[in-house]
Specification:
Layout: H1 4-55, H2 60-64, E1 72-74, E2 81-85, E3 88-92, H3 103-113
Antiparallel strand pairs: 1-2, 2-3
Length: 124
């Protein structure tokens, strides 16, 4: 016959294992929800940024630069657009919040800074 102490120890071990299993499941599902929510927030930020880029030429910040919105051409990727002026051409990248240039955008900026920009006429 199993003594009552042995039975209590077995029962305690079973309860402990169940408790550990439930806590791990709760932790894992909470972790998944946090990841999902963070992903949705990042996606919403990206969407807002893409929408803001479309309207940027019509903002006061753009007007303060003295640029004509009709002379701006939106490209999208990897650079947002080009502003044509009487005395030059400006490659424009809009950023919101704490965002920074991507590796590709930094490379393009370096090429422009080094004068590695060309004009090609292609005839058909």
């Amino acid at each position: 016959m199993i003594s009552s102490i042995s039975l209590a120890l077995v029962l305690a071990a079973v309860v402990l294992c169940l408790s550990l299993w439930l806590n791990l499941r709760l932790w894992w599902s909470g972790r998944q929800r946090i990841r999902s929510a963070a992903s949705e927030i990042r996606g919403a930020r990206i969407d807002r940024g893409l929408i803001a880029e479309q309207f940027a030429p019509f903002t006061k910040a753009f007007q303060r630069l003295g640029w004509d919105p009709q002379e701006f051409r939106f490209l999208g990727k990897p650079i947002d657009g080009i502003q044509f002026e009487d005395d030059g051409i400006v490659i424009v990248e809009f950023k919101t919040g704490n965002s920074s240039l991507s590796r590709r955008q930094r490379h393009i900026k370096e090429l422009v800074d080094r004068g590695r920009v060309k004009f090609r006429e292609i005839r058909f």
